Amino acid sequence: GAGALYIAEYYSWTVSYQVMAALVGVGALTVLVAREPAVNHFAAASDIAQKVREEASKRTHLPPALAKFAGWFYAAIAGPFLDFFRRYRELAIAILVLVAVYRISDIAMGVMANPFYLDFMGFSKTQVADVTKIFGFFMTIAGSLLGGVLVVRYGVRKILLAGAIMTAATNLLFVVLAQYPPNVATLAVVVSADNLSGGIANVALIAWLSSMTSASFTATQYALFSSLMTLPGKFLGGFSGIVVADFGYAEFFTLAGLMGVPAIFLVLFMMKHGARLDALAPEKAG
Predict the structure, then answer these.
(1) CATH, residue 114
(2) 78 — pLDDT class (breaks 50, 70, 90)
(3) If you average pLDDT over every residue of the chain, what do you get?
(4) Is the dihedral of CA 9, 118, 238, 257 positive or negative?
(5) pLDDT at 46
(6) Is residue 18, in this structure, part of any structural domain at all?
(7) Angle at 207 (CA atoms; ends 205, 210), nearest 5 degrees
(8) What is the 3-state secondary structure (H, E, C) of the chain?
């Protein structure tokens, strides 16, 4: 991110995208020329293979090929979903809604961050790269480390609530930033708060999602959660330009902050039913 802005500042966006395309090409070329590793794919997926055999053995009334297909479909696709809904029962929908809305405020706001910095505030590309990409990166790492410590110390649901509140609140700092002339120090303070809260919230959310995945279906269930937690924000972020054009940046960031309120109430709901969630949580191996 920072490199692209530096190149655009000193050369042009055309050169910046050409460099990014060339760097992507390095990865593509590496994949094409690299030799295929000698991997026992059956052994790598032995847990799924065993599950498929177990499920197929329950369907001996079917032709062998159909029984194997039904066993695979249950083990790889239907099983993870049925396991989640059977385990969490009446709380399953609330959990999925929380996963969907937890990062919606942060993701929707992030879509318009660079246009806000560059076009509205008037910061140079170098200033944006220095503060939001380089300095912001280290603040995110600091937030993640702090989030991990806090989760261990106070438990995941309390930090999940703190992350939801902080994410919504830091969006309102951009409303304040929009009211004043560009100042790098003020930008650094806002970016620090935003990235620290984002790091804490992400760690708490990942820890919470990991605690809810079953050892038998870890990959599929975590893929479901991780896809769901970004999809609504990405979708709504596509309309952010319309909101800014019709109302302005201050109103947009206020709306983005308010979009975080449902997550706060849903976390409170989960905390209220914490004992129930703990009782339904899957047992972890080891």
Answers:
(1) 1.20.1250.20
(2) confident
(3) 83
(4) positive
(5) 60
(6) no
(7) 105
(8) CHHHHHHHHHCCHHHHHHHHHHHHHHHHHHHHHCCCCCCCHHHHCHHHHHHHHHHHHCCCCCCHHHHHHHHHHHHHHHHHHHHHHHHHHHHHHHHHHHHHHCCHHHHHHHCCHHHHHHHHCCCCHHHHHHHHHHHHHHHHHHHHHHHHHHHHHHCHHHHHHHHHHHHHHHHHHHHHHCCCCCCHHHHHHHHHHHHHHHHHHHHHHHHHHHHHCCCCCHHHHHHHHHHHCCHHHHHHHCCHHHHHHHHCHHHHHHHHHHCCHHHHHHHHHHHHCHHHHHHHCCCCCC
* Rounded Cα–Cα distance for residues 157 and 111 (Å): 28
Handedness of CA 269, 272, 276, 278 (dihedral sign): positive
Q: Assess if residue 56 is contained within a domain.
A: no
* Distance separating alpha carbons of residues 228 and 188, to the nearest angstrom: 31
Which residues form the domain of 120?
81-280
* pLDDT tens-digit series, residues 235-245: 888 888 888 88
Residue 8 has pLDDT above 80, yes or no: no
> Is there a domain that residue 32 lies in?
no
Query: What is the model's pTM?
Result: 0.77
Q: How many domains does the chain have?
A: 1
What span, in angstroms and rounded, lies between the C-alpha atoms of 174 and 165?
15
Query: Taking the CB of residue 266, how many other CB atoms lie within 10 A of it?
Result: 21
Amino acid at 22: A
- Say how many residues make up the chain: 286
Using an 8 Å Cβ cutoff, are 178 and 249 in contact? yes
* C-alpha to C-alpha distance for 278 and 236, rounded to whole angstroms: 32
In a domain? residue 73: no
Q: What angle do CA 12, 17, 21 make, to 5 degrees?
A: 150
Residue 204 has pLDDT above 70, yes or no: yes
Token pair recorded at residue 133: 């990409």
